[in-house]
Design goal:
The protein is of the alpha/beta class and 543 residues long. It is 34% helix and 20% strand. The strands form five sheets. The protein has an eleven-stranded mixed sheet, with helices on both faces. Strands 18-19-23-20-21-22 form a six-stranded mixed sheet, sandwiched between helices. Strands 3-4-5-6 form a four-stranded parallel sheet. It is globular and about 80 Å long. It is built from 18 helices and 25 strands. The two termini are 31 Å apart.
Length: 543
């Protein structure tokens, strides 16, 4: 067992663990590990061969270095015996872990002790798996950070690179693609041991590029330590995750760490908000700037945007008269921003303008469907499932799905996640009341928090906005979530729009430690079909 687990995910992680590392790893002598750590290794143990690294005793494979870290309630050293039984040939821990091992029966493998072993995990993983220098072949890494748009931008990058003939991988919220079958993703960014193992696996399978979502949690929890991205991209920064970062300044500072020489070689930064402009001015790596609104001076600017089907066609105007004509089939101005950022990140990596334009023209790479991201389930009524789970994302999604058809209404179904930033709950309620005609507030993932109390926070914001701003929105409380979705469909007319927001691609709802099967897309399709509405069949999902 290990203290580094995600609730409800251990079984899934164990099931797929073998796919998070390459089949073959050239052994690294323990003496070399000790030298990297500045720790002396006794001569009899110097030739012990390390072929893997793990923080979780249940994912240890023969030849692994088991890293025993302090956890919230137990120390990883408590599970060293399990790790050794699974084949770990050495243990790395701190002083507290060493004392626990000394109090137990004799530990039959070498134990290396450093003050802060967590700081060593990323660099050691890179060293053991040779993740960025496996055989001298470059595997270009694209890292995307920001509050909203990370998932879609990484899918767009992957789709564009494939259109250019590249063999690409993906590490993100929805899934992990390392060639062949997709691996369901349990974290936005996996642990650093898994990240480096995955990149080495991509090398082994002949891939030459990978796009990765880089969340603030990944930076704070050191999940991307030991990685240097060829191009880092920034989407935007809005209120989210303040349960972790406390203030927006701290949140920004964490994101900004990605734009330093130890983590990236160059960057593309969207400067549509103040945070992006600050980042562009303070980044310690070469920066290309992007403005999608034209409100800020930038190297590249979105111009001539015009509707095309559900999406948008636009031009990117750059230095020295350079232009790129781009189309995205996904609705919303934010997907224009995501597509523009993806184009410029690939351009910054060495892509030629003419090759990029040919790929954009012939492959239409940004009409790829991204699971749970502005995913269209029906077009009459327009019924969309989106991951929007904070104030900015919810506002953008509502604006994107609002129909221009006369006498049309916008119905939104959403809630708020338990045990997360409580300050955004009433603000999300108020935004929904301002931008929708019917607001149906329900449950998201309550986790261990009282679901009714969460709904009350969101309801308070919506009802206060209706009263104080004299809004015409109808505000309803309907639960459980599947009943709320059915109620929205029951209210809908063909000319109306329905947005089911907050959970996107997720297929489990966690309530009091129990995972309940719930997929917004399935529930929405079922309800629409029951009403006799046509449901779209979408075969464009990239997997």
């Amino acid at each position: 067992m290990s203290e580094f687990t995600t609730p409800g995910s251990d079984a899934a992680r164990d099931e797929s663990a073998g796919r998070f590392r390459p089949e073959a790893v050239a052994p690294v002598p323990l003496a070399a590990v000790g030298q990297a750590l500045g720790v002396a290794v006794p001569a009899p143990a110097a030739d012990v061969e390390i072929t893997g690294i793990s923080l979780n005793s249940r994912t240890v494979e023969p030849g692994d270095l088991y890293v025993a870290l302090p956890g919230a309630s137990r120390h990883g050293a408590d599970f060293a015996r399990d790790a050794i039984g699974a084949g770990a040939v050495a243990v790395l821990t701190d002083d507290a872990g060493a004392r626990l091992l000394a109090l137990s029966a004799d530990t039959p493998v070498p134990v290396l002790v450093v003050a802060k072993p967590r700081n060593e995990v990323g660099p050691l993983s890179s060293m053991i798996y040779r993740s960025q220098s496996a055989d001298g072949r470059p595997l270009q890494l694209f890292g995307v950070t920001g509050t909203n748009g990370k998932t879609t931008t990484t899918y767009f990058i992957t789709s564009l690179l494939r259109a250019l003939g590249r063999q690409t991988g993906l590490i993100g919220t929805i899934e992990i693609l390392a060639g062949g079958q997709a691996i369901p993703s349990l974290l936005t960014t996996p642990e650093s041991t898994d990240v480096h193992g995955l990149i080495a696996l991509m090398h082994e399978r002949g891939l030459d590029a990978a796009a990765m979502e880089v969340s603030s949690h990944a930076i704070s929890y050191q999940r991307v330590d030991g990685l240097v991205f060829d191009v880092a991209g920034f989407t935007n920064l809005t209120q989210d995750h303040l349960d972790l970062h406390n203030t927006m300044e701290e949140y920004f500072a964490t994101k900004a760490e990605l734009f330093t020489p130890g983590r990236a070689r160059q960057a593309v930064v969207t400067v549509d908000d103040e945070w992006g402009r600050r980042l562009a001015g303070s980044a310690q790596v070469p920066v290309t700037t992007l403005s999608t609104s034209g409100s800020s001076p930038a190297d590249w600017t979105v111009t001539s945007a015009s509707p095309r089907d559900l999406g948008t066609s636009f031009t990117l105007a750059g230095p020295d008269g350079a232009v790129l004509d781009v189309h995205t089939g996904l609705p919303g101005s934010f997907n224009v921003a995501n597509a523009a950022l993806a184009v410029l990140m690939v351009l910054a990596s060495g892509g030629g303008l003419s090759d990029l334009q040919a790929a954009l023209d012939h492959a239409d790479p940004f009409t790829v469907a991204v699971p749970g991201r502005m995913q269209l389930i029906s077009d009459r009524p327009a019924a969309v499932v989106d991951f929007a789970h904070n104030t900015d994302a919810l506002a953008r999604a509502l604006e994107a799905v609002r129909s221009p058809e006369p006498d049309s209404r916008l119905i939104v179904v959403f809630g708020a996640t338990g045990q997360r930033d409580q300050g955004k709950r009433p603000a999300m309620g108020a935004i929904a009341a301002r931008l929708a005609d019917t607001v149906i507030i329900t449950d998201d993932d309550p986790h261990d928090e009282d679901a009714a109390a969460i709904r009350a926070d969101v309801l308070a914001g919506a009802r206060d906005a209706v009263e104080t701003e004299s809004l015409g929105a109808e505000v309803l409380e309907v639960f459980p979530r599947e009943e709320a979705i059915r109620h929205a469909v029951a209210l809908a007319r063909p000319q109306d729009s329905i947005l089911v927001a907050g959970r996107g691609h997720e297929v489990w709802q966690e309530v009091k430690g129990v995972n309940l099967a719930l997929d917004d897309r399935v529930e929405l399709r079922t309800a629409l079909t029951a009403r006799g509405f046509n449901v779209l069949q979408d075969d464009r999902i990239e997997s």
